[in-house]
Design brief:
- It contains 15 helices and 19 strands.
- With 419 residues, the protein is an alpha/beta fold.
- It folds into two domains: 264 residues, Alpha-Beta Horseshoe (pyruvate-formate lyase- activating enzyme), CATH 3.80.30; 78 residues, Arc Repressor Mutant, subunit A.
- The strands form five sheets. A nine-stranded mixed β-sheet has the order 11-12-9-7-6-5-4-1-13, sandwiched between helices.
Length: 419
């Protein structure tokens, strides 16, 4: 879609959408493909350095075009993920960060994802020199047996070394762990390595300020899913997984971390500001193969359906050599889908659904659309004058709640007199 010229040197889109204040960069390079991963990425060994350089330059060029198109004048948050950005050769890693720094105007929070095998003193020095303030480390497990099952290229020892290095740099450090990792069939689930709670305690001792604990999802056509389907591995029972997570949460709570989103924990005030933009349905842009932008309209939509505000989603092509040629898919998001996405994302967090913002955007109270569901779940809802949110028990059942919301929304939307 071409930008709509308004004769002022900008675009009608830039004037009619919520100006993006957050930026995501996708780097589809990894040391190797993990057994559970279905993200768009390729092993670094399959790339030539010139091919990587072309992609870095194309990503920066695409970013400049998006900034111009949507009138961005700086960013509050920047997040560079993948893939593994630190798997880039050192000179190209610096080239990427310096290109982003030149366009991003000193964001308040700038996160770069890293994996233990590619985080070293040089990568840390590059990040500090370019203004990165936060590093997110993909640990996933500190149990050697589980790391092998996941196909991770690092060891528990290299993970702890990388965490200590990151924490000592002065940047804020986040880490990821995976719960519910399968084990060999017939092993009874016994693991000689540290429990999830023990791993959490060790990470906290190393100085992390934020932790994500994700339940493993067996994605179709991944090596791990095939191993489970073949009967080589078995997944934990739901009760065992709940007990595993409860133990980890007890450690986190005792150390001042709260569960502020379904899978994320941090002391109050140290939440990931970038991810909160997603969960609060703010506008953001994304550059790099496989990245996504979402632009929220603030008035009559320049993308159609002018009677109600909507959003524009831009999905960048999952191409490497042809990325510079464009090919992004642009889709106006209808109001019904936008309303459901707002409900879905808001209820992921303890902050919940902002009732006033929802009414302002969609012209109707949320309760008019999902009132029966809210009544049915009243025992696990927290309602204030300004917000609706799920209590901790409700967060554990989020998917069931959202299915109920979607079913009801199908029958209540659009509201009478609005289309």
């Amino acid at each position: 879609m071409e930008a709509l010229a308004d004769g002022s040197g900008g675009s009608a889109e830039a004037q009619a959408c919520l100006v993006p204040r957050s930026l995501y960069i996708h780097v589809p390079v990894c040391a190797s493909k993990c057994a559970y991963c279905d993200f768009f990425s390729l092993p670094a060994a399959s790339w030539s350095e010139s091919r990587m350089a072309g992609l870095v330059d194309a990503t920066i060029s695409r970013l400049a075009g998006l900034i111009s198109r949507f009138g961005c004048d700086g960013f509050d948050t920047v997040y560079i993920g993948g893939g593994t950005p630190t798997a880039l050769p050192a000179a190209l890693f610096d080239r990427l960060l310096s290109g982003v720094a030149a366009l991003a105007a000193s964001p308040g929070e700038w996160t770069v994802e890293a994996n233990p095998e590619s985080l070293d003193e040089g990568a840390i020095a590059t990040m500090l020199a370019r203004g990165v303030s936060r590093v997110s480390l993909g640990v996933q497990s500190l149990d050697p047996a589980r790391l092998a099952i996941l196909g991770r290229p690092h060891s528990a020892e290299s993970a702890t070394r990388a965490l200590a290095l990151a924490a000592g740099s002065g940047m804020r450090v986040s880490a990821d762990l995976i719960a519910g990792i399968p084990w060999p069939r017939g092993a009874g689930g016994a693991a000689e390595g540290p429990s999830l709670a023990e791993q959490v305690s060790l990470l906290l001792d190393l100085g992390i300020a934020h932790l994500s604990v994700y339940d493993l999802v067996l994605e179709d056509d991944t090596a791990l899913a095939r191993a489970v389907e073949a009967g080589e591995l078995e997944v934990p029972q739901e009760d065992d997984l709940a007990e595993e997570r409860d133990g980890a949460e007890a450690v986190l709570s005792a150390r001042g971390f709260r569960r502020y989103e379904v899978s994320n924990y941090a002391p109050a005030g140290l939440e990931c500001a970038h991810n909160l933009v997603y969960w609060k349905m703010g506008s953001y842009i994304g550059s790099g193969p496989g990245a996504v932008s979402t632009l929220q309209a603030t008035g009559p939509s320049p993308w159609g359906r002018a009677a109600w505000p909507s959003s524009l989603r831009i999905e960048e092509a999952q191409e490497i050599d042809g990325y510079a040629k464009g090919g992004a898919v642009e889709s106006p998001i209808g109001t019904k889908e936008s309303a459901y996405e707002t409900i879905m994302m808001s209820f992921r967090t303890v902050f919940g659904l902002d009732k006033t913002a929802f009414r302002r955007r969609f012209g109707i109270e949320a309760r008019s659309l999902i009132g029966r569901t809210l009544e049915a779940w009243a025992g696990q809802l927290i309602e204030t004058r300004d917000s609706l949110s799920l209590d901790p028990g409700g967060l554990d059942l989020l998917n069931r709640f959202l299915v109920d919301c979607l079913i009801e929304l199908d029958g209540t939307f659009p509201a009478p007199g609005q289309s």
